[in-house]
Design goal:
Strands 1, 2, 3, 4 and 5 form a five-stranded mixed sheet that branches. This protein is α+β, with helices and mostly antiparallel strands and about 160 residues long. The longest helix has about 80 residues, at about 1-85. Helix content is about 60%, strand content about 15%. The protein has two domains: about 1-90; about 95-160, no CATH class. The protein contains two helices and five strands; from the N terminus they run αβββαββ.
């Protein structure tokens, strides 16, 4: 009977050793998985912190852009008020480029600046002329002032004279 008990005890010990070894291997694998998951969790936590910083930066940028938009809108409103009040309108004294007045067609306003010291005048002259298109108005001013080095010719703008 002692032999039987010895055999059973030895078998139980062998099974216990095998079970302990299996459980140790499984515990090591689970420990490695847990370590990998903790590292991944740290990476995701860093991503979260980075996303929070980026969100704060983008909110600050959006606030700065809103301020710039508000300033630009205020400038636009001021310019619109200037245009409506008449302060920013074309000058009231014009040089006439036409010898024979024409009544048909729209009026155009063209500014010409004398850039050269050899020009017969200095500063800016404002011309009012009648032409069908802005290109025609520019062409007629260029005929009058052909030297591109001596004069800077502005773009033709529609001229609306106030009723008095």
């Amino acid at each position: 009977m002692v032999i039987l008990w010895s055999l059973i005890a030895t078998s139980a010990m062998a099974v216990g050793l095998l079970g302990e070894r299996y459980l140790r291997l499984r515990a090591n694998r689970l420990s490695e998985k847990l370590t990998a998951l903790v590292e991944r969790l740290d990476v995701y936590a860093n991503y979260g912190k980075l996303a929070a910083l980026r969100r704060i930066e983008s909110e600050e940028t959006a606030a700065k852009l809103r301020e710039q938009v508000a300033v630009a809108e205020a400038e636009v409103k001021a310019l619109q008020a200037d245009a409506e009040s008449g302060d920013g309108n074309a000058p009231m004294v014009f040089h006439c480029a036409d010898r024979v007045p024409r009544s048909e067609g729209p009026l155009w306003y063209v500014a010409v600046e004398a850039k050269d010291d050899t020009a017969p005048w200095t500063g800016v002259r404002h011309y009012a002329l009648v032409a069908d298109t802005p290109d025609e108005a520019r062409k007629r001013i260029q005929e009058r002032h052909p030297s591109p080095a001596g004069f800077a010719i502005g773009p033709p703008l529609p001229l609306i004279l106030p009723d008095r």
